[in-house]
Write a structure and sequence with these properties.
Elements: E1 2-3, H1 7-16, E2 41-42, H2 44-51, E3 56-69, E4 86-99, E5 102-106, E6 109-113, E7 148-152, E8 157-162, E9 165-170, E10 175-176, E11 195-200, E12 204-206, E13 209-221, E14 234-246, E15 252-263, H3 269-272, H4 285-288, E16 298-308, E17 314-322, H5 329-334, E18 340-351, E19 356-366, E20 393-394, E21 397-398, E22 408-418, E23 423-433, H6 436-441, E24 452-464, E25 467-479, E26 488-500
Antiparallel strand pairs: 1-7, 2-10, 3-4, 3-26, 4-5, 4-6, 5-8, 6-7, 8-9, 9-11, 11-13, 12-13, 13-14, 14-15, 15-16, 16-17, 17-18, 18-19, 19-22, 20-21, 22-23, 23-24, 24-25, 25-26
């Protein structure tokens, strides 16, 4: 819901209260958080399920964030917020209730973007003024030319559970994968979409290890800046996650994720249950039934593994994915790198004295063009024309990695925390190269014309009685923005937030 009438509410709330990283937005946990039983899917309802009793009432911490971008839009993993140029604000809070066999969470969100103008490339898809510079995706370069606010249901959900199995409906954000900066299949970069889930309530514990699984059916929507064709406004999203934590290999978690989208107007029994169909193209009904060997669906699949050291706070992880079916096993074995992408990273914390701890973290994500492209071209990640041209998005934002199609990124941080007080400071550096799929298709470009951003900064947290204040300040530049031959645009990013413990 987009209207200026909510702007005053957001600005007023921003003065009173506010998160900085993706994990600060609401109570969505980071992948290395707290419990020894890791889950393949992260969400607010799962945190509540793990912490609540059969009868409990809780108030979700109110959080509000005020952000500023001096240059171009930049940032992600912020759910319904679009971090455009200028000031951006996010506010969330809510309540949760548990009774025997039932959990209810109400956690709406309000977002505001000042949406100051900037120079960008002429659109080729979507709105002729604000649409994307490339084709086959609903990812506007700018969401109109006015400030705007949105009100979302956010992490709202209702769950019925028994025998540690749950049926859930809601709009909460779901994260598939172990990454901190980027997850390839499903992240909290876009607003939560209405969906139905069926799977484990908390991981099943067996002698062989812990097992969790989820099946998901949802409805994706296009943005206000794609087209005026009401027949393609929605898409069916079907996904599944399976995670296993073996008892004979303490600390290890192995997961597999699959997601398929198709036009809402073509829903039938096959589309609803196509998640269970064979992975190979030659065995899929829809491919066999069409003369071209293609259909109106779009699949992505990934496998992930992570290791939590049993005795020290150290974690390493990898997610490896493909966005194109292999024709058969032989095809996969010959070209496993075809249409591949991956995210890998680590985090580590150590005590340097009884009062101080030191932490390190790093992550690399690669969604670059496939190395098999010279002999076997493949479409870019997240762009797909067969599902209506909207690609892998919801309300104009990527469902997966926030850096987007054809991108790669490198992130590193080092932090220090004062254990008794909870005060911490973290220095970080981040480099993002945007959409090399598009760049390599342009003519007249040189090796110096990559569109990339380089940022470095510091983030701090200061607890106070009843909550905590977080802040972030970063500076850098955006080189060759939107391939416009403009050199480097300076970038300053700032954030201030307050979270109250209730």
């Amino acid at each position: 819901m987009r209207s200026l009438s909510a702007v005053a509410i957001v600005l007023l709330f921003s003065v009173c209260a506010a998160p900085v990283s993706a994990q600060y937005l609401g109570i969505l946990p980071s992948a290395e958080d707290e419990t020894n039983v890791q889950e393949s899917v992260r969400s607010v309802s799962r945190i509540w399920a793990a912490r609540s009793s059969d009868s409990a009432f809780g108030v979700l911490n109110p959080v509000v964030e005020l952000r500023y971008n001096s240059g171009d839009p930049f940032g992600g993993n912020d759910r319904g917020l679009w971090q455009g140029r200028g000031f951006n604000s996010f506010a969330s809070g809510g309540i949760a209730y548990s009774a025997p066999y039932v959990d209810l969470v109400f956690a709406p969100e309000i977002t505001f973007s000042q949406n100051v103008g900037f120079a960008y490339r002429p659109p080729q898809s979507g709105d002729p003024r604000f649409g994307n510079y490339g084709t086959a995706i609903d990812q506007p370069q700018r969401f109109g030319d006015q400030p705007f606010a949105d009100v979302w249901l956010g992490n709202t959900s209702a769950t019925v559970h028994h025998w540690n199995t749950a049926l859930r409906v809601g709009t909460e954000s779901l994260v598939f994968g172990p990454g901190e900066q980027n997850n390839l299949i499903l992240s909290d970069n876009a607003p939560g979409f209405p969906h139905i889930e069926f799977g484990t309530y908390t991981p099943w514990t067996t002698r062989a290890g812990n097992l969790d699984w989820q099946l998901l059916w949802g409805r994706l929507a296009e943005s206000d800046f794609f087209d005026d064709d009401g027949s393609n406004d929605f898409r069916l999203f079907v996904a599944g996650a399976l995670g296993y934590q073996p008892s004979f290999a303490p600390g290890w978690q192995f997961s597999v994720y699959r997601a398929i989208q198709s036009p809402w107007s073509t829903i039938d029994a096959y589309k609803v249950f196509q998640l269970f169909e064979a992975l190979w193209k030659e065995n899929r009904r829809s491919y066999a039934d069409t003369p071209t060997g293609e259909d109106d669906t779009d699949q992505v699949i990934s496998v992930a593994m992570e290791y939590h050291a049993p005795r020290i706070p150290f974690r390493v992880y990898l997610e490896w994915a493909r966005n194109d079916h292999a024709a058969n096993p032989e095809d996969f074995l010959a070209n496993p790198e075809h249409s591949r992408a991956y995210t890998t990273g680590f985090d580590y914390q150590t005590s340097v004295s009884p009062s101080w701890s030191l932490s390190f973290a790093g992550e690399i994500t690669v969604i670059n063009p496939s190395p098999t492209n010279p002999v076997r071209p493949t479409g870019p990640w997240y762009r797909h024309v067969a599902v209506g041209g909207q690609g892998y998005t919801h309300h104009g934002q990527y469902l997966g990695a926030w850096i987007g199609s054809g991108a790669n990124s490198q992130y590193a941080e080092i932090g220090m925390s004062h254990i008794p007080s909870g005060i911490s400071a973290t220095g970080f550096v981040e480099r993002v190269v945007f959409d090399n799929d598009f760049f390599y298709a342009l003519s007249g470009q040189s090796y110096l014309d990559f569109n990339y951003a380089l940022l470095g900064g510091v983030r701090a947290e200061l607890p106070f009685r009843g909550g905590r204040v977080r802040s972030e300040l970063a500076g850098g530049y955006h080189a060759n923005p939107y391939w416009l031959d403009e050199g480097r645009r300076p970038m300053i990013r700032a954030a201030l937030s307050v979270e109250y413990d209730l």
